[in-house]
Structures are given as C-alpha cells and as structure tokens.
Amino acid sequence: MRLIRGLGPADSKAFEAAGMHGAVVTIGNFDGLHRGHQAVLGRLLEAAQDRQAPALLMTFEPLPREYFAARSQAPAPPGRLQRLRDRLVTLGDSALGAAWVLRFDAQLAGLSATAFMEEVLHRRLGARHVLVGDDFRFGRGREGDRSALQTAGKRLGFTVESTPTVRDAEGRISSTRVRAAAVAGDFARVAELLGRPYRLHGRVAHGDKRGRTIGFPTANLRLGPWPLALRGVYSGWLRRASGEALPAVANIGWRPTVGGTEQRLEAHILEGQPDLYGEAVCFEPVAQVRGEQRFEGLEALRAQIARDVETARTQLSAHD
C-alpha cells in the first residue's frame, strides 16, 4: 500500500506517477477501522476490481473534529481509538492501492464543497467512483453532501455509491460503540466490534527513566498530541515483531504525578527486562487496572505500581 500525504500539486501528475489516477475512492476518518469500516473497504475493492481501477482511501490528520475543537470554545472531542500510525499499520494488511492522508488545516477547512469536488476529487485524483456514507458532509461549513456529490459527478465524470452498513444485535457498528467499550475496559467486546484485537503501535523510545529509580523500568511509546480514548493503567501484552508476547502493565496518559507534558504509553514488562529500545512493538490491552491518578510523590506512586503489577498478573492469568 502506498502512502500519499497532503494535497500536492494542483494537477494529476503526482497521482499519475503513483499509479493512482482514476482511482475508486472512499473518504472518512476511519477511527478504529472496525467491522463497519472493513465492509466499506471490501466494497471499495470490489468496485475497483469491477472498473479495473486502483483503490484509494482518503483520510485526515488531525481528525476534523479535533481541528475545529482546538479553535473554539467547544468541549473537547472524544478521544481517538487510533493514531494515524495505528490506522496505517492496520490498513497495511489490506489490498488497498494507497492511503491518501490530507492534513486537515485552515486551507482544507476553507475549501468550498465545489472546490473540493473539482480540485481534489476531479483535477488531482481523477476519481472514477466515490463511496461515502449517507450522512457524509464536506466542504466549508459542511455545505456539501452525498446529493451534491452525485450532481457534480455527472458533470465531472465520477459515480457515487452509499457505503454499506454493518449491524449486530445491538445496532449499527460504529466508532462510538467501540470507544464506549474501550473506555469501559471491555476489550473482549472491543475485539468483537473490530474483528481483531485492539492494539496501539509504536517504536520504543528513551523516556525519563524515572521508572528505573523506583524499581519499575518501562518501555515507552510516544503517542502524539491528540488524546486517546484510553487513559489509565491496563494489563496486556507487549508484542514484538518476532511474535513474542510479553506480559505487561502499561500506563497510558500524561503522567500527572511527574508533571508530564506529553501523552505516552509506558509499559512495565512483568517477566524479565528485555532490551527493547528502537523496536517496533504494539500493546494489546486485556483489562483496565485503574484510571489515571495523581499521587503525592514518587514513593506513593511506587507503592501503587506494585499493587498494579499484582492486579495485572491476576488479570492476565485469567486471559492467558
């Protein structure tokens, strides 16, 4: 799968060079890439095959709701299920031709619906077929909808199709439902909705090394500025590229006790102390141990981590 970033030149040259001009495209946030999203990808690939065209997924970074919330007095949006890295790793297992990641900024937010259809979908991509949900809105002030796409498509040479909806006994499968299950610590339910285990990916980086000073060294993954849905302490598996699954307890959040200023995942391995620096790994939570807390000093934190370790051992033994 190719990765294409940004709007690029105001013509089709970049997409022609990438072999993606004339693609069949679907557009959305795709947070979590749950079973509903997977049905969309399946239909995208079928439509591309029918037309002997490449299949492309268009997504955004940051997510539009994050961009607008950061520039207004509106309440903070719900945390993400996945960072961009997680979305791309998950998509890498698909047969997509490319993922096109558009930076959602003032330029993109200010594009009219007409400009988006003419300049982005038609002039740059040369889209042949577009799959979107019935509630899809786009363009400045959310002025565009599926009907506008269909009307423009007749003029610009692309067709429009509604994406499939996947339901279970409780209703439509959505990122909102997956997020609620994750926040509740019900990772068995999360896996059912995703169709796979929930995982956060990253490369182990050097941290502050405070964990070593209190007897609990950690493997640290930097998670970027956009808040995740998960916040607190979780038991789970730190999986290495080799396939080895290391039992671990991980804190996900801003580390208020030590005045943390960036969101991190800090995983303490329960058995042994392997050297993981620089390795690409993923953390697969099994259960929540507790929520994020601020403690009065490192000694109180050390005592709580010791209790967290024992809780995590118990939880993991039940999920082995």
Structural description of this entry:
- β11 (232-240) and β12 form a beta hairpin.
- The radius of gyration is 22 Å and the shape is elongated.
- The protein folds into 2 domains: 2-168, Rossmann fold; 199-318, Riboflavin kinase-like (Elongation Factor Tu (Ef-tu), domain 3), CATH 2.40.30.
- The longest helix is centred in the last third of the chain and has 21 residues, at 298-318.
- The mean pLDDT is 93.
- The two termini are 34 Å apart.
- It is built from 11 helices and 14 strands.
- The chain is α/β, with parallel strands linked by helices and 320 residues long.
- It catalyses: riboflavin + ATP = FMN + ADP + H(+); FMN + ATP + H(+) = FAD + diphosphate.
Mean pLDDT over all positions: 93
| Quaternary structure classification | single chain
CATH class of the largest domain: Alpha Beta
Number of helices: 11
CATH architectural type of the largest domain: 3-Layer(aba) Sandwich
Q: Give a short account of the largest sheet.
A: 6 strands, parallel
